[in-house]
Amino acid sequence: MLPSVVLSIALANGALAAYSFKPLEHLAGIAPYFEPADPPLDPKPAQGCNVTRASYLVRHAAIYANDFDYEEYIEPFTDKLKNTSVDWSKAGPLSFLATWQTPISDEELEELTKVGELEAFQLGVDVSLRYPGFKPPKKVWTSTAERTEKSAQSFIEGLVERSNGTERVSVPESKAEGADSLTPYKGCPKYSSSAGSKQSSQYKEIYTKPIVEHFHDLAPSFNFTADDIVGMQELCGYETVIRGSSPFCSLEVFSPNEWLGFEYMNDIQYHYNTGYGNPISGVLGYPWFNATAGVLMSDDSDQDIYISFTHRELPPTLVVAMGLFNNSAFSGANNPNATMPLAIQNHRRAWKSSRILPFLANIAVETLSCDSYGFDAGDYFRVVVNRSPQHLPDCADGPGESCSKGKFEEFVKARGEMFGGYTEQCQPEYNNSTNVLSIYEDA
Ligand SMILES: *[C@@H]1O[C@H](CO)[C@@H](O)[C@H](O)[C@H]1NC(C)=O
Ligand SMILES: *[C@@H]1O[C@H](CO)[C@@H](O)[C@H](O)[C@H]1NC(C)=O
Ligand SMILES: *[C@@H]1O[C@H](CO)[C@@H](O)[C@H](O)[C@H]1NC(C)=O
Ligand SMILES: *[C@@H]1O[C@H](CO)[C@@H](O)[C@H](O)[C@H]1NC(C)=O
Ligand SMILES: *[C@@H]1O[C@H](CO)[C@@H](O)[C@H](O)[C@H]1NC(C)=O
Ligand SMILES: *[C@@H]1O[C@H](CO)[C@@H](O)[C@H](O)[C@H]1NC(C)=O
Ligand SMILES: *[C@@H]1O[C@H](CO)[C@@H](O)[C@H](O)[C@H]1NC(C)=O
Ligand SMILES: *[C@@H]1O[C@H](CO)[C@@H](O)[C@H](O)[C@H]1NC(C)=O
Ligand SMILES: *[C@@H]1O[C@H](CO)[C@@H](O)[C@H](O)[C@H]1NC(C)=O
């Protein structure tokens, strides 16, 4: 081939393409829904397999801002902004702050945005297309917060032809439910919502220091703090799901490496809060997994698909209960905290919260009926997180990351030995706690 032909083929194939980076895929709990292809396996069931039943745990869709993020980081920054005499027009990449107005007000906190509603509807449509043979579910479950109820409703409208045929069942979020709710962390005194803030603060100081100094150079009298930086980065996510885009997401404002710093700080927080760094995490996630295994393996389930809506805390605990995204996997060691150093990023970690719990995060467990080359015909089970198939540890003897029925039964039992006993582990003060999630039993 002539060199010029080779060059034009190379260009067409993007061989010389510029480096690119998407901040929205690194925003941890504020990431708008995306499918990270982690790992990049084909989401379709393996050759010869049909999905015959499925169970989904779904985080609510995008909201205006949660109370904590707003009060701790965003509002202090926006209040300061209202009251500053800085001439932003001279502040280079921050010049947009001269006219920028906050998209969030006190009244809308915690509410679903229009983008969130649309995305929940869209996920409903997507799920219906994944399982064309399924009957519409009689019930869909949701914890009772307005944002979870509304997410469930929009999802149902996307999923089924006639939404009046599907009941939305509200599962109380109150404390004394033990494991029998979609918010089991609320009734567990061994869980603390602030776990991880001490550790993540250490990394916050490290990654924000150069940003603070850079911004100080641009606008000395604003007195930027580490928390202002966090608030501004959070605004990238929230403003995007409110207005469709945000000037804070510009790579002129924060560089790719600065976004990765924000992401790692969050990953440390979730590691110690609802991840492998908190011994109670798997205990909180196990009841949903056990209940799901029950309906998937039962001979007479009433529904083809079981779907439950919850908050950001539950999906990562379920991930731990199932042993997925485990930084220590294949290492032969088990020292989870050492895998998330507080002074430097572990870029090779499996634990990336943006990929585990974005808005509308969804974790599916499916029953497959397979007659596949190289495997015995029969029932298999597989887990799909945000549309990427995952294999369970020591439970992947089937086609396409799936696990045979016998192995799966053993797996559910073994995880129960690790993480069962909610009441004993959580030691709640109320005396009617339970270890099992029973919401699906009378479906
Ligand atoms: C606004 O700025 C003025 C002057 O710098 C200061 O005295 C006042 O306390 C500030 N108000 C708020 C709400 O921060
Ligand atoms: C749902 O609505 C449709 C159309 O309005 C109606 O024909 C159907 O009977 C309703 N189904 C139920 C279960 O109420
Ligand atoms: C325990 O009792 C409280 C108060 O009566 C009730 O709201 C709650 O549902 C009960 N929990 C369970 C697991 O039955
Ligand atoms: C700047 O912010 C820091 C941290 O909040 C505070 O301690 C300091 O007094 C502030 N300085 C000025 C000049 O406002
Ligand atoms: C990891 O750190 C947390 C918080 O300090 C601690 O509770 C947990 O036991 C540690 N995990 C291990 C395996 O040492
Ligand atoms: C994570 O992986 C290590 C190494 O395989 C294993 O010892 C540990 O039990 C796993 N953690 C969980 C919660 O599954
Ligand atoms: C999967 O579904 C197709 C189409 O309905 C059917 O022909 C095939 O036999 C099914 N395979 C298994 C293993 O159930
Ligand atoms: C799993 O669920 C079943 C059915 O509800 C229950 O009998 C069993 O005790 C549960 N396992 C654990 C470890 O909680
Ligand atoms: C549980 O606690 C309630 C209120 O504290 C008390 O009335 C009830 O007798 C207790 N039940 C049992 C079985 O201990």
From TrEMBL:
Family annotation (SUPFAM superfamilies): Phosphoglycerate mutase-like (SSF53254)
Gene3D superfamilies: Phosphoglycerate mutase-like
CC per GO annotation: fungal-type cell wall
Alphabetical UniProt keywords: Disulfide bond, Glycoprotein, Hydrolase, Signal
Signal peptide feature range: 1-17
Family annotation (InterPro entries): His_Pase_clade-2, His_PPase_superfam, Histidine_acid_Pase_euk
Cysteines joined through disulfide linkages: 49-370, 188-426, 236-249, 395-403
GO MF annotation terms: acid phosphatase activity
Keyword Endoplasmic reticulum (UniProt): no
UniProt xrefs under PANTHER family: ACID PHOSPHATASE, PUTATIVE-RELATED, MULTIPLE INOSITOL POLYPHOSPHATE PHOSPHATASE-RELATED
Name of protein: Phosphoglycerate mutase-like protein
Species this chain originates from: Zopfia rhizophila CBS 207.26
